[in-house]
Amino acid sequence: ENIFDRSRMAPKTPIKNEPIDLSKQKGCTPERNPITPVKIIDRPQPDPWTPTANLKILVSAASPDMRDREKKKELFRPIENSEQSDTPDSLQYDIVDDSTVDEFEKQRPSRKQKSLGLLCQKFLARYPNYPLSTEKTTISLDEVASILGVERRRIYDIVNVLESLHLVSRVAKNQYSWHGRHNLSQTLKLLQEAGELQYGELMTSQHKEQDLEYKFEKRKKETIPDSQNRPLLDFSESDCSSASANSRKDKSLRIMSQKFVMLFLVSKTKIVTLDIAAKILIEETQDTVDHSKFKTKVRRLYDIANVLTSLGLIKKVHVTEERGRKPAFKWIGPVEFPEKTDELNGHSPTSDPLPGTQRGACVQYQTSATGKQRFTRHASFNSAQPCEANRRKVSSEPNSPHQEKQDENCSKMINLAAVCRQKIEEDTGNKAGDTETILNSTKNSNITLPLSLLPVPGDSDFCVNPLPQAVFPVVQADVPSFSLPVGISSQASHPSTPAASKTENGKPTLVPNQPFLCFPSSSLFMLCGGLQENNLSKLLPTAGNLGNRSAEAQAAVPPATCQKRSSHKCSSPSAPVDDEEPAAKKQMLERSFLPLSLTVPKQPSESPKAESSPGSGCSAAVHLEMDHFDLASPVAPEAANKEPVKPLDCQEQKKQSQNKDPDELPPGNEHISRENANQPFQPQYLYVQPAAGLNSFNFLFSANQAPGAISLAANQMPSLSVPCVMVPSAALASFPLVCSPSFTSPLAPVPDGSFSAAAPTNFSVSSLASTTPVFINTTAVVTPKVSPAPSVEPQQPPHPALHLSPVLTRSGNAVKLDSPVCMGHPVTLLKLQQPSSAPLTPKSIRPAHHEAFFKTPGSLGDPVAWKKHEGNQTRNASSVQRRLEISSTSPD
DNA sequence: CACTCCCGCCAATTA
DNA sequence: TAATTGGCGGGAGTG
């Protein structure tokens, strides 16, 4: 159609034609053949494209490049075909016949054919819905405009809306990068959350529109000032910090789009009438609701609606009310936004080429995490780009008047964020109370993270950010590495531990902050502590900025660094850095996402950044955050040791993040990632038997730490980004136990004695045999029994050992070899593979099913320990679940 | 006539 | 200053 138009109508077309068609149609030249040509023209073009269209889509999935190229050409075809297809053709023919000459031309271009919706479809057709992570698709506005045969202005309309949903992001002038729908669910989720804050009340009431409106206004006044103030944090700015002003009024379209979507997401009926939406939007923006404004708003809404319709998120409907029928749109997109990993996983596999690289990391995150991860990923990608990418405007200026505004907003936002957070937590089912409590209990500075999060502006991130997980530090503990839990607390250090660690290969790793210890055994363990959103959030913050968080956050994470290494080792030194940045970016991005005010600018806090990590390249990223782990990587085992030594306690934890480099690690090694700290922990642990790829490695994950961290490589190779410790079984042999005091330490510093006590225990464990992996959380200890479990059989649930009391754990570390699991905390142990004793789980034992475990954070025995993060955790958990499931499956 | 929403002027922002 | 973005609203196409 376009072609038609072009030939006839559009002057521009000529150019477009050629370019547009690209190679294929020559025949179709723009000429206007009065007669049949029309049709012919159409035909030819379409044909070439159409046929392929479907294929190409598929292909696109397969090969990006191809798809891009082809899609461009074809894409619109399909659309056209679908919509217009028959009609136009037939018409055309007729027309042709009738009015051989000019007339048809006029008709062709019917307005509909030029609609923004159609244009958007064409636009979308050019890009894969779920581009591989590896490929980065950039969109040139000029190019697209010419290809689609429209003025740039129109492209802006589309892109702005897509940008609001994060399907694309502005990279530079005239350049946008295509993200596809990977993040869509995340974005929608955020919008929904944000929407609930802003409009929740409104919609809740079933809406009568008026009611809604009414409420809306009311609400607006009361609670959400921000929207008016500065609704637009949206994107970039917030994070960027300065935020430059919101540029222009601009963003209006973007913001409007987000708000519009929010209305749908919040609405129970999922139907929003234009006029209501317009009113709401107007009000937010302005108080005056003059008619002209209304009209303008409606116009814009149509624009947005057209794009959303093209995206398949809404459809037009009519609602008849008393007074008649009103145009409205119904949301037909996803309503629930679990984090989805979706395709990512599938895609990811391909991506990993880079072992240690960022990318890899990113991927993992993605994998592990849900949508968030995706973001992360993007972020990483974007990393190259400035955060601002989103907005050109971002001015760096630190403080500008705008800023002030922002600050104000920030405060508001913060509040909102807090609210959101709470909400989220609650929603998640976590117990918010717990969280807090936990915090308190935890006190340890670092750990407390969760708390801080709340208050901190960063929170907003929380709400906003989906990605948090992206960041966790991962450490690989390779062979040699040992980290002593010592760090955990100064107190904590345990002689034994260190010794142990070293002893053998050093495999056993302790992570200072981390709660868990892993031993390699044949089977794999995964422990998940609190994975949570919170964690995530925390993590994010770190990256971001947020000083506040930093402290708390340390926990947060360093950008994950190592990620993927699973298969490879990560090692790339450079990677870490990158990761970090990306993380930051992510944050930004995330923030940006938030439409409303959610995003909060970071506050100035000081965050001590982690020191740069020593040698490990990867580590760099990590350090930031804080992880305190030590990794002992082969490379720098020493370092690891050192750190451990340090008093981790609160302070240190922050800093510590050290990673080690993966490089050195032998492939099989374990990675340890840790998170640390900060957080609340979650009691959940997963034990995974080694999958094929894993062989002897065991993984432990602490939920808390790395939310998204755990991800399994596509191949099954598990890659851990999580704060986990993996120990090669071999290494473990001698050491059964690992203790990480750190974690707990923060909360409850473990008495030295306790720890030591534990140590002994461990030894005893030795009997277990190498196979048996033992994890000890400061809080909890788990002993998985590996199939071969030696005499000590963990299986019995009832083991006395199991009971190590949480107390111990908390206080210090409890360790038990015998019992399959010991938990200080309400940790849940999951065994995926082994059936062994079901009962293994300590208190919280949930049913063997992983899912169950994950899902129910609540089960945690100690609320205190685990705090609030749960909300986050939940998310994390979910991600974890996935992974676990995956992993489990693989092993199975 | 009401609904849609295309079109493109022109200002704000950037480069 | 030129170019890029994008707000905005007139007014045309549709039903």
TrEMBL record:
Cellular component GO terms, alphabetical: RNA polymerase II transcription regulator complex
Keyword Cell cycle listed: yes
Biased composition (Basic and acidic residues): 65-77, 640-663
SUPFAM superfamilies for this protein: Winged helix' DNA-binding domain
InterPro entries: E2F, E2F_WHTH_DNA-bd_dom, WH-like_DNA-bd_sf, WH_DNA-bd_sf
Any one Gene Ontology molecular-function term assigned to this protein's record: DNA-binding transcription factor activity, RNA polymerase II-specific
Location(s), subcellular: Nucleus
A single BP term in Gene Ontology: sprouting angiogenesis
Alphabetical keyword list: Activator, Cell cycle, DNA-binding, Nucleus, Repressor, Transcription, Transcription regulation
E2F/DP family winged-helix DNA-binding domain mapped to chain residues: 111-180, 248-333
Start-end of Polar residues biased regions: 81-90, 371-385, 873-892
Residue segments, region Disordered: 1-47, 62-92, 340-359, 371-408, 550-584, 597-619, 639-675, 856-892
Major subcellular site: nucleus
SMART domains with a match to the protein in the record: E2F_TDP
Highest taxon, organism lineage: Eukaryota
PANTHER family linked: TRANSCRIPTION FACTOR E2F, TRANSCRIPTION FACTOR E2F7
Family stated for the protein in its record: Belongs to the E2F/DP family.
Name the UniProt record assigns to this protein: Transcription factor E2F7
